[in-house]
Amino acid sequence: MTSIIDYDAGNLRSVAKALEALGEEALVTRDRDQILGADRVILPGVGAFGDAMARLSQYGLADVVREAAASGKPFLGICLGLQLLFGSSEESPGAEGLGVFPGRILRIPDGAGLKIPHMGWNSLEITEGSRLFAGIPQGSFVYFVHSYYLKAEDEDIVAASTEYSVRIHAAVERGNVCACQFHPEKSGDVGLRILRNFLAM
User: Residue 106's domain spans which residues?
Assistant: First the structure.
C-alpha cells in the first residue's frame, strides 16, 4: 500500500488513479500512522513553495515527511513535492523547506521564445544506473508544469536532467528517496513505467 500525503496540494487524485491503474492500493491521507505505516510514501504537489510549507506545518506533517524520507522505505516527491525536499526557493523568500537534500529552487530564466511557466513535454537525459528510470530510453519525453527549477548542490543525486532556458535537474535519487519535477501521472506510458519502477523498489 502506498500513502499519498494530503496537504491540500492539488493533484492527489490523479496520482492515486495512476497507481490504481498499476494495481497498487493508494491511500490519500494526512494521518501520521497511516503515512509511516505504509509500504511506500508519495509527496505530490502543485502550487507555491511557501504556502505548501505552511500547510505541511499546519497539519503537523513537516516532521512526518522528514521521518518517512529517513525511514528507508521508498519515498517519491512529485513536482512541488520535489522542491519541498530542498532548503529554500526563490518563489518564497524566507520560507524554509524540508532540507532532505542540499540545493536551491530557482526561477526559470527568461529565454527567447520560451514561456514561463514551462508547460509541456520535454525530453530527459537520464543518469546511468538510476533505478527510477530503469528500462526507460534516453530522450524519453515527460510532462512538466513549473516556473521554478531545482539546482541540486550534489550532482551525484541527479537522476535525470532536461533543458528549458537552463539546465534543469529534473529528477533526483539517493537511497530510498526519489523525486521528479515533472508529473509521471500525466506522462503517458513513460510516466507509468517510472511509477512501476518506484513500486518495485
Answer: 2-87+101-199
